[in-house]
Structure formats: structure tokens, C-alpha cells
Write a structure and sequence with these properties.
binds guanosine-5'-triphosphate; Rossmann fold; binds magnesium ion
Length: 291
């Protein structure tokens, strides 16, 4: 499964190795900053890292490339949050994010993951704005064998969440996954609606939703961080799903996001099929980044 990460991440380490195959000078460090920046590590992290590496090279001109890479690895991992979620019964997961980020697909992938683990899963069509969105999710539910709760198009999404959790309690469901409509983080009224959905979940189970997962497209680069910050301000995000990493050559966004937000990336989307979802392991990821 980690061959995927290696494929997208290994050019990063190769570029650094090539760069340090010669005695470093000022242009080496400029180049290095560019490599970090292009990998989507963000301007500040890139500049800070280069300053530190420049200092190390000055102090120890004979330091080898592998030692530099080991230092980069340590730095990238510092401050990265990890987590373990204990599943509640029923365990309620709310999916949020901007339009087209991959919420519905990721929800189906997660549902499929839990079903393969032997859990009873119920999916709630909380994106009530479009009939097509309800249909898309219903098709997934049929395909993967999940129970399904929906409303009429344009019904109140909070009502669907409320009904879904009630049904889950009555039917002994383990996992409830609630889809929501995509929304731009600048649309304040829609952002407030997310808070309403959360409140209604709490009427059914005081701790619900147990997870609020922010789904974000890796190919949009640093904008992902701004999006996440605004969502986080309206509705506390407990984890991130980074999608479409198969379409991005820039693995650094995963590191930059966690450092900036202090919210763990839990899953990574690597394609459009239900099995294209990988759990995110920062240690392993950074190792592959620097292979
Ligand atoms: N290549 C690739 N495509 C993905 C991935 N995740 C989702 N997609 C595709 O991205 C498109 C949008 O996915 P959806 O799951 O419908 O996105 P959404 O966030 O639910 O969209 P809205 O409900 O319209 O806001 C679909 O064509 C998906 O197949 C991924 O990890 N990799
Ligand atoms: Mg959707």
C-alpha cells in the first residue's frame, strides 16, 4: 500500500540528493527552498527549514546528504499530531468541506472500510440541496451494502441527521456517516448551517458527532490550509481526509496542514474507487517522502 506514497513522494528526496551531490553554496540553499516550496510545505516551513540546514552545513561542512535528509525528516515530524479514535456506539461521523472536494466519495470509502471490518454502517444523505447528490449516495450505499437514510430534496439537512441517528440507535448500527452539501467557507449562512447540524446531532447523542472530518482536495495546494482554518472556526474539525493525492505530485501539503492546524490527517484518497483510501501514518509518510 505504501508503494503509492513512494511513487508520488520519492522525486522530492531525489532532488535534495542531486542538489547536495556538489559542495553547497548560496545557490544550493536557494534551490533547496524552492524544492520545499514546490512540494507544498508552505513558505514559512520551507524558509525555516533552509535556515536550519544552512546553519548545520556551516558548522559541519562535511555533513553528508543522508544526515541532511535525516534532519529534514525529524523536522517535518516535529509538532505533527497523531491520534487514536475510540469508536462509540453508534459512532457518528460528519463529513464537511467545499464543493467537489470528495466528501461523498470519501464517505462511501470509509463506509466500505468499516463494513469490511464487520461493522453495521448507516449512511445519511445530508446533502439535500440536489436530488443528484442523494441519488449518488444511495447508489454507493447499495453498492457497498450500507443502510441508508434520506429525505425529500430540499428538506432540512439537520432533520436527516436527526432521523439517521435515531434510526441507528433503534437498529443497533455501529457507524453513522453523515454527508453534507459542499459549501464555500466564505458563505457564512451555510457555515452556520453546519453548526446547526452538529447541535441537532447532540440532541440525539450529547457527544455526537464523535468525528467531524474535513475533506479537502490535495491538488489545491496551500489554499487547503485557509479553507480548513475557516471551517475549523465554525465547526471544530477533529480530523482531515486529504483526497486526490493521486493527482498531485506535492506531498508536503499533508505535513504543512498538520503543522498549521494541529488537527491530524486521518485518511488519504488515492483514486475514485471504494478501496482507494489509505490510513495516514505520518512517520511512514515522511520516511517515504525522503526515501
Ligand atoms: N482521482 C481522485 N478522484 C477523487 C478522489 N476523491 C474523489 N474523487 C472524485 O472527485 C469528484 C468529486 O467527488 P465527490 O465525492 O462527489 O465530491 P463532493 O465533495 O461530495 O462534492 P459536492 O457534494 O458536489 O460538494 C468525483 O468525480 C470523485 O470520483 C480521489 O481521491 N482521487
Ligand atoms: Mg457530495
Amino acid at each position: 500500500m505504501f508503494r503509492f506514497f513512494k511513487k508520488i513522494l520519492s522525486p522530492f528526496a531525489k532532488k535534495i540528493r542531486d542538489l547536495f551531490s556538489k559542495v553547497p553554496d548560496d545557490s544550493t540553499f536557494e534551490h533547496l527552498e524552492q524544492i520545499f516550496y514546490e512540494a507544498d510545505l508552505g513558505a514559512k516551513t520551507s524558509a525555516d527549514l533552509v535556515d536550519k540546514i544552512r546553519g548545520i552545513c556551516k558548522k559541519n561542512p562535511k555533513i553528508g546528504t543522508e544526515a541532511i535528509l535525516a534532519f529534514v525528516k525529524k523536522e517535518l515530524l516535529s509538532g505533527i499530531v497523531t491520534h487514536a479514535t475510540a469508536l462509540k456506539n453508534p459512532h457518528v461521523i460528519l463529513m464537511v468541506g467545499v464543493n467537489g472536494s470528495g466528501k461523498t466519495t470519501s464517505l462511501a470509502k470509509l463506509a466500505s472500510h468499516y463494513i469490511r471490518e464487520g461493522k453495521k454502517v448507516l449512511i445519511a444523505a445530508g446533502d439535500t440541496f440536489r436530488a443528484a447528490a442523494i441519488e449518488q449516495l444511495e447508489n454507493w450505499a447499495k453498492k457497498i451494502g450500507a443502510e441508508f437514510v434520506k429525505s425529500q430534496p430540499n428538506a432540512n439537512p439537520s432533520g436527516v441527521a436527526f432521523d439517521a441517528i435515531a434510526a441507528a440507535k433503534a437498529r443497533g448500527i455501529d457507524i453513522v456517516l453523515i454527508d453534507t452539501a459542499g459549501r464555500l467557507q466564505t458563505k457564512t449562512d451555510l457555515m452556520h448551517e453546519l453548526a446547526k447540524i452538529r447541535k441537532v446531532c447532540q440532541k440525539q447523542i450529547p457527544e455526537a458527532p464523535h468525528e467531524t472530518l474535513f475533506v479537502v482536495d490535495a491538488t489545491i495546494g496551500q489554499n487547503a490550509i485557509d479553507q480548513a482554518k475557516t471551517f475549523h472556526a465554525f465547526t471544530p474539525i477533529t480530523g482531515i481526509i486529504l483526497t486526490k493525492l493521486d493527482g498531485s505530485a506535492k506531498g508536503g501539503i499533508a505535513i504543512a496542514m498538520q503543522k498549521e492546524l494541529q488537527v491530524p490527517i486521518l485518511w488519504i484518497g488515492t483514486g475514485e474507487r471504494e478501496e482507494d483510501l489509505l490510513p495516514f501514518d505520518p512517520e511512514r509518510y515522511v520516511s517515504d517522502l525522503l526515501m
